[in-house]
Design goal:
With 82 residues, this protein is of the alpha+beta class. The chain is 16% helix and 41% strand. The chain is built from one helix and five strands. The chain starts with 10 loop residues before the first strand and ends with a strand.
Length: 82
């Protein structure tokens, strides 16, 4: 018997992907306000001085720390889950 999925059970969440120089996989950060973190990191990239960025997150990574001048790129990712 084929199982049917109810569209009401599918939820969406947004994560911030941080691609670091020299790394093959991005850091996937789940936070309360991903758009605000994205904007904050974007400003940190523009900063002429390197900034230490440390955040607690809601996903599998509980705490993360990196230097702003090591950020190669950023992305917002929307994913569906049940």
């Amino acid at each position: 018997m084929a199982q049917q999925f109810n569209a009401q059970n599918i939820k969406k969440r947004i994560s911030v992907l941080v691609f670091l120089k020299g790394s093959t996989a991005p850091l996937v950060l789940y936070v309360e306000n991903p758009e605000a973190l994205y904007d904050e990191l974007k400003q940190a990239i523009k900063s002429p001085t390197a900034l230490l960025i440390e955040r607690e997150t809601l996903g599998p990574l509980k705490k993360v720390c990196f230097i702003s001048n090591q950020i190669a790129s950023l992305a917002l990712q929307e994913e569906q889950y049940m």
